[in-house]
Amino acid sequence: xxxxxxxxxxxxxxxxxxxxxxxxxxxxxxxxxxSEEVDKYLKETLIPSEYEKSVKALETQNVSNPxxxxxxxxxxxxxxxxxxxxxxxxxxxxx
Length: 95
Hints:
Blueprint: E1 3-10, E2 15-22, E3 27-32, H1 35-45, H2 48-61, H3 70-75, H4 84-91
Antiparallel strand pairs: 1-2, 2-3
């Protein structure tokens, strides 16, 4: 899967942010407004068996691709972010 959802938790505010991550550009290509929008996206783009695996991975690994982890995102991103906080600062549009 060259695209998957990444969940970032801001520890200061305890707010979750969801990004569509591309392994092609090693960066975010879309920001979801909430977990419901993420769920809808996953249901529309995945077959049922993959959907269940992706939801579980997102809950446990913060990445909807079960073969990736947040550490993989931190080690290879186009903004050279080394922490989740830096990912939020560089990729999330705060409202």
